[in-house]
Design a protein that fits this description.
heterodimer, A: two-stranded antiparallel ribbon, 17 helices, 4 strands, globular, B: two-stranded antiparallel sheet, 2 strands
Chain lengths: 606, 278
């Protein structure tokens, strides 16, 4: 049953989508039918249907692209480091992929059906340009599926020596296929955002060069941004899975395993999150360079308040991520010496979030304006500008890094003779960095905007340099360090696991919000300034209605992910029960024969 | 019980996010439509058209709403406009802000706005005034204001177009720069704005690149001024004749304001590089 689920559905989904494409392409390109199909289901219109299908397809796709990345890395750590614990973790990640893969394909097929029936004219236009890449996409999906099956089902068969290395190479190939598949799909959607120069509504789609359509202005920035975001997302979902399994665990052994798994997923998610804004900055810059109007719509037009919501969400991510680390220190012997610092770090984070989420101007009525003495609040106006926000976010990143460092050092006492000097050097680096960040933040109020923009680069560079410098010293200093005791994996209060769940929900919702921003800046265009959306849903909704759709998508996603988690547990339990029965039968058989050989334990079975 | 707690955590988190996104100011991006103006339009309709121009063709959101280039006007300007200049009504203040933006600069902002009558008709400007008044105040633009504006627009449309300048010697580059409002952002001889490169920096540059910078300002963005990218209108290729553009480019590359060569002696601008935009 499980194998039918995991092997069959993904392949069938691709086949259905390919069939839809094959049927739709020649018919739609020629038929003079309507531009848009009718759809009304429980108040959901055609745009809502496509939106939900696309968002869910993307969320599952991000999951099946993100998780293999660190499954492969963790398998390598286990393989080269000789620690089987990592190998088992990597396999458990991969087990989650199988059903998620099916879900990705099913939502992809639904999306294709919706597009071809609700937006037939536009879909025909896209297929006329991208058909060859769509066939390659379907072919790669097959390759990816079968590579995944080989990777998972060959795990135990190819466990030693050269066979293990070959198995690991399968994992790498899985990532390669997945990345190419994503790059191809990104070509289609970025074409809609930033089509090549010189196209008009009258340009026949057959005359558009395929490569120029794919290799458009925003294609590579989106590729890189999504690649990183998938790692963040994959880490967060694995963290949520671990939290779910931790909370439903029956034994200390299980709790210890899922506690460790949750920590690893969270570490990867937060680590990749710190790099993500740089990719986002590049994407934003390319959008501005492609079209100033599009960039302005994104940052300063009707979407300007979206960035306040984004600040609120990222504030939650920082707070929940740090909270998880701080609670985690409770299970590390020696961590109590760092406890007094936590309240100060919390203060910095809370103040940072408040500053970051402060709007530059307040929406106020006449009386409030009169009371404030102008359109800006007499005090808050100082916090609503970029100087304050850049300073706040850089100090938040620095504080998060400090949390991680304390967590890392909690149970270790360095033994190198320069340990004291090294720690002082690290402290000095933190202090200097904070001074640089605050100095440029304050100085920014006294210079022109042009100079002020340049200051943010100095602030970011100071933080990154400090992170690299401090971690370098730490690695050297903790070589051969004396342990104060092992981490007591599994000794975590339940609230820490709810923090992981909130992190996963927030990451997912943030992806939906940023997807709305990316897609919404096209406004009333299917292909920006080339193919106009003439349907009654051509307007771009305000944040409130958009947030409702995003929440519906996230709720459906987590309901399905919950099912996947449950299936994962079910599969594991059935394997476990089967093994238990075998062990029991073996013991009885040996007892009957008087065999003195030790009985196999359940630990030998995965 | 654990499963219920997990479900509650997920649903409660989503509910908080949805709630926050619904209580912030809601702005929907409407599909632009062809604007038809008439003198008998009620004030609310004028304001609705003004809003479309504000968010669309007027390009106002290029600066207003960002928080750093120009004041955010939505929801507030109608409440403060009558208090800016003693003795000046809200309507008059807003009108002056559009057609003579240098008359009053809000504290904390740079003088970067250009005369909007270059970009829009008088009737369109009055719809903008009506919209801005509606942002925290009452609309006082009336049928008389609007009828007079429409009449002025009709008269302007009926008037013969200004003669196309064909003789470069008839073009005064400095007067042209002043008339087009370039000094709102660029400086010449130390006078003018600071949000775009001073014209002296263009000396010795490739004329084709300078011309492109005038007719298509986003073609190449000066890194130093990237924070203000998008501020410069894209209409100068239409506002100036080929000869005027030619003289202007040669004035810049020859060393604006610092011993510039006579326009006629300057290198030729590629003839087709400006033609595409007109």
């Amino acid at each position: 049953m499980k194998r039918w689920l995991t092997r069959g559905v993904a392949t069938r989904g691709v086949l259905l989508a390919a069939l839809a494409l094959a049927v739709a392409l020649p018919l739609l390109a020629q038929a003079p039918g309507p531009d848009y199909g009718e759809f009304n289901f429980l108040g959901l219109d055609r745009r809502g249907a496509v939106w939900i299908a696309a968002q869910l397809h993307l969320l599952f796709a991000a999951f099946v692209l993100g998780v293999p990345m660190f499954a492969v890395v963790i398998e390598a750590i286990g393989m080269f480091g000789g620690d089987e614990k990592y190998d088992k973790l990597a396999k458990e990640f991969t087990r989650l992929l199988l059903v998620a893969y099916s879900a990705t394909a099913i939502w992809g097929a639904i999306l294709v059906f919706f597009l071809s029936t609700l937006y037939p004219r536009f879909w025909a236009y896209l297929t006329a340009i991208f058909a060859p890449s769509m066939w390659v996409y379907a072919g790669l999906f097959f390759l990816e599926s079968f590579t995944l099956y080989l990777y998972y089902y060959g795990w135990d068969a190819w466990k030693k020596g050269a066979a293990k290395k070959a198995h690991w190479c399968l994992g790498i190939m899985l990532n390669v296929w997945g990345t190419i598949v994503m790059f191809i799909a990104n070509g289609w959607l970025t074409y809609m955002m930033s089509p090549p120069e010189g196209l008009t509504a009258d340009t026949a789609p057959q005359t558009v060069q395929l490569w120029s359509a794919i290799n458009n202005a925003t294609w590579m920035p989106i590729n890189i941004h999504r690649l990183l975001a998938n790692v963040v997302f994959g880490g967060a979902i694995v963290g949520a899975y671990a939290a779910y399994r931790f909370l439903t665990s029956k034994t200390d052994e299980e709790r210890a395993h899922y506690d460790w798994m949750g920590y690893t997923g969270n570490l990867i998610a937060i680590g990749a999150l710190i790099v993500l804004p740089f990719a986002g900055y590049w994407l934003g810059r390319e959008i501005y360079e492609f079209s100033q109007q599009m960039g302005i719509t994104m940052m300063g037009g009707f979407m300007s308040w979206l960035w306040i919501i984004q600040a609120f969400l990222i504030g939650i991510l920082f707070l929940a991520g740090n909270y998880y680390l701080w609670i985690g220190m409770g299970r590390i012997p020696g961590a109590e010496r760092f406890q007094p610092y936590i309240k100060w770090m919390l203060l910095v984070l809370v103040l940072g979030v408040i500053v970051w989420a402060t709007p530059n101007t307040m929406i106020a009525d006449r009386d409030e304006i009169a009371a404030m003495g102008g359109i800006r609040h007499p005090f808050l106006q100082v916090l609503g500008v970029m100087s304050a926000k850049n300073t706040a976010v850089n100090l938040m990143i620095l504080t998060t890094f400090l949390s991680f460092l304390m967590y890392r050092r909690a149970n270790k006492d360095p033994v190198v003779p320069w340990a004291r000097a090294g720690t002082m050097l690290q402290g000095a680096a933190f202090a200097l960095c904070a001074v640089i960040v605050v100095f440029y933040g304050v100085y920014g109020y006294f210079v022109t905007a042009i100079v002020r923009i340049g200051f943010s680069v100095y602030q970011v560079l100071a933080v990154l340099a400090t992170i690299l410098f401090v971690i370098g010293i730490d690695m050297a200093m903790l070589r051969g360090a004396k342990s104060r005791g092992e981490i007591r994996w599994g000794r975590m209060p339940d609230r820490s696991q709810y923090a992981l769940l909130i992190l996963a929900v927030t990451f997912t919702w943030l992806m939906g919000l940023m997807g709305f921003a990316r897609s919404g800046i096209r406004q009333h265009w299917h292909v920006y300034e080339v193919i106009r959306d003439t349907s009654e849903q051509a307007f771009t909704p305000a944040l409130g209605p958009a947030a409702t759709i995003i929440s519906i998508c996230v709720l459906i996603f987590f309901a399905l992910v919950g099912l996947i988690f449950w299936l994962g547990g079910l599969a594991e339990r059935s394997v476990y029960q089967e093994a238990e029965a075998k062990v029991k039968a073996g013991q009885e058989g040996r007892a009957a024969l008087g065999d003195p050989m030790p009985a196999p334990s359940l630990g030998d079975v995965d | 019980m654990t499963n219920l707690k997990i479900l509650f955590t997920v649903v409660a988190t989503l509910a908080v996010f949805t709630f926050v996104a619904n209580v912030i100011p809601q702005v929907q991006s409407a599909v632009p439509r062809e604007i038809v103006l008439s003198a008998d339009m009620p004030p609310e309709e004028l304001a609705a058209i003004g809003e479309e121009i504000y968010a669309g063709a007027g390009g106002c959101t290029a600066c207003h709403g960002l928080g750093t280039r120009a004041p955010d006007l939505l929801g507030v300007v109608g409440g403060v406009c009558a208090t800016r200049v003693p003795g000046q009504s809200c309507k008059d203040y807003l009108w002056e802000s559009l057609v003579n933006p240098m008359a009053y600069i809000v504290e904390g902002f740079d003088p970067i706005m250009i005369d909007q009558s270059i970009l829009s008709s008088q009737a369109e400007l009055w719809t903008l005034v009506a919209f801005l008044e509606s942002q925290g105040g009452e609309i006082t633009v009336n049928a008389d204001d609007f009828a007079a504006a429409l009449a002025a627009d009709d008269a302007a449309a009926a008037a013969p177009p200004p003669p196309v300048v064909t003789d470069p010697s008839q073009v005064d580059a400095v007067a042209l720069i002043t008339a087009q409002g370039c000094l709102a952002c660029h400086a010449l001889g130390g006078e003018g704005g600071m949000v775009a490169p001073p014209f002296e920096e263009l000396r010795g540059q490739d004329p084709a690149v300078v011309l492109e910078g005038i007719v298509d300002p986003m073609a190449t963005i000066n890194e130093e001024y990237s924070a203000f990218a998008g501020t410069m209108p894209t209409i100068f290729g239409d506002l100036m004749s080929p000869v005027e553009l030619d003289v202007l480019v040669n004035f810049f590359v020859g060393g604006a304001g610092a011993g510039a060569e006579a326009p006629g002696d300057a290198p030729e601008v590629p003839p087709d590089s400006a033609g595409g935009s007109r």
